[in-house]
Structure formats: C-alpha cells, structure tokens
Amino acid sequence: MNKFLQIILILLPNLLFCQIKTFNLIEKEDIIYEKELSDTDRYQTLIHQINISENSTFEFRHTPYVSCLTWKEYKGTWKQKRDTIIFTDFYVLEESDIKFEHSTLKENKFYDFTFVIDSQKKYSNESVEISFVYDLDSKIKNKQNTFITDSNGNIQIPFSEIENLDKLTAFRIQINLNGEKKWNHFTTNNFVNVKKEELPNKIDVNIISKPSKETIKRETKAILSNENLRIISSRSEKSKLSNYSNRLNFSNNYKRTYY
C-alpha cells in the first residue's frame, strides 16, 4: 500500500474526531423527559446519540433499529457556559388537518359521522374515505371504504356492516378539499392499532381548511464532565398547538465514544 495512503488512513479517524465529538446513550440510565408533559408523551423520541461539532452545531440522533429508515436527526447550535452546554434547535408544529369530537349514544346501532369545514360549513354530498383499522394482534388487514356524505354532511355506518367489529380499533378518515388531501386517525385507544376499549359511535369531524403553523424553540442543557455528558433539562416553548411528534426523551447520561 502507498505510504502516503497509509498515513492518511491512520490520521483520518483523528482528524474526524477533532471535528466531531460523539456521545452515546448509556443503557439502564434514568430517562430525562421534556417538561410540560401531556397525554401525547407516547409519541416522544429517545435520543441515542449526540454529536457535537467544533463549528457550534450539533445533531441529536434517534437510532432505534439497525435500519437507517427508522433513524431521525435533530440539528441545531450549541454554546458553552462554564461546565454547561446549551443546545438550541427549532421545529415546526402544524395544526391537524382534521379534528374530532366524540360521544357515545347507547341507543345507536351505528357509527354516526358529521363532517363540517372550519366548524361552520357542512361538508355535503362529498366523497369520504373511511378505513377500518384493526387490532394488530388480530392480523386483520385494514379495510378501505368510500362513502358519500348526505345534504347535512352525515355518514352512518351500521355496526352490522362492519366485519370483525370486536377487533376495530380506529378509523382513518381522508377527504379531498380543493384538490388537497387531508387525513387523520380517530381513536380513543392509546394506539391506533391496539384495542383497549370500544370506539364512541357519535363522531364529529372538523376539517381545517388552513391549518396553523408555529415555529417552536427547544433548549436542552447538559453538564460536560470528563468523558460523560449528563442531560439536566430539556424544554420547549409553549404553544397553542398539540406537540405530537417532536418531543424528545434523553438518557440521564451519555458516554463519549471513540471511533
């Protein structure tokens, strides 16, 4: 092998290491949760790796499985105050395309859907895709159906017309408004494909024509000590919008890794 190439291969890891310091999650450590916890916490993402670059940028990496298709990265900037590192990143929250209100009418033997636009205009005589979502353990495939709303924006689906009703966990609703697809899942279970309870049979569907957006600032603080990075807090700015997908979990401790 060419001597020059040998030298480059030897020095390359060191050169890279000088630019990026990597800290990996230590198993069996306590988990630090974002403040302002809510019933959406099941959507939080555990950060497995933290990369700190000398150009004041960083990456939080979520790598739950070997496949890179499951990975997520959150990038931002950092600054140091004494032994504390402050990570700052921004993310965008968007209001749901479709919102729900629900109740249960014991006398009803059908699911009663009422569709409106922006809480006002009836979604009348329009096509709606309603998919039946079943419990994962049942191994029943989801079933997609197309219905037409009546003049009042209503659709009624008798229980008797739904196969495997006892395994039903959610509805996936999709509509087309002015050429734009909008969709959401309706369920009162913790997960759309895990059944814990029966679904309510009166479902009011509010289609949001122009969902609101908001940019949220997140600040995460850590103490750098020897070879360890210890997360002490992570807070996002308050928002009027539901924070479903961008909450992060951190291990209490991350150990510096040498590659």
The major sheet is characterized as:
8 strands, antiparallel, barrel
Mean pLDDT figure: 85
Low-confidence stretches: 3-18, 31-43
* Helical coverage, percent range: under 10%
Quote the distance from N terminus to C terminus.
Answer: 23 Å
Radius of gyration: 24 Å
- Order of helical and strand elements: HEEEEEEEEEEEEEEEEEEEE
By oligomeric state, this entry counts as: single chain
**What sort of overall outline do the alpha carbons produce when their principal axes are compared?**
elongated
**Number of separate helices:** 1
Structural account:
With about 260 residues, the chain is mainly β. An eight-stranded antiparallel beta barrel has the order 1-4-5-6-7-17-18-20. Residues about 5-20 and about 30-45 have low confidence and may be disordered. It has one helix at about 5-20; strands spanning about 20-25, 30-35, 45, 50-55, 55-60, 70-80, 85-95, 100-105, 110-115, 120, 125-135, 145-150, 155-160, 170-175, 180-185, 200-205, 215-225, 230-235, 250, 255. The protein has two domains: about 20-95 and about 215-255, no CATH class; about 100-205, Sandwich (Immunoglobulin-like), CATH 2.60.40.1120.
Which properties best describe this structure?
single chain, about 260 residues, mainly beta, 8-stranded antiparallel beta barrel, 5-stranded mixed beta sheet, disordered N terminus
Question: Layout of SSEs?
Answer:
Elements: H1 3-19, E1 20-25, E2 31-33, E3 45-47, E4 49-53, E5 57-62, E6 72-81, E7 84-94, E8 98-103, E9 110-117, E10 121-122, E11 127-134, E12 143-148, E13 154-158, E14 168-177, E15 180-186, E16 202-207, E17 213-225, E18 228-236, E19 248-251, E20 253-257
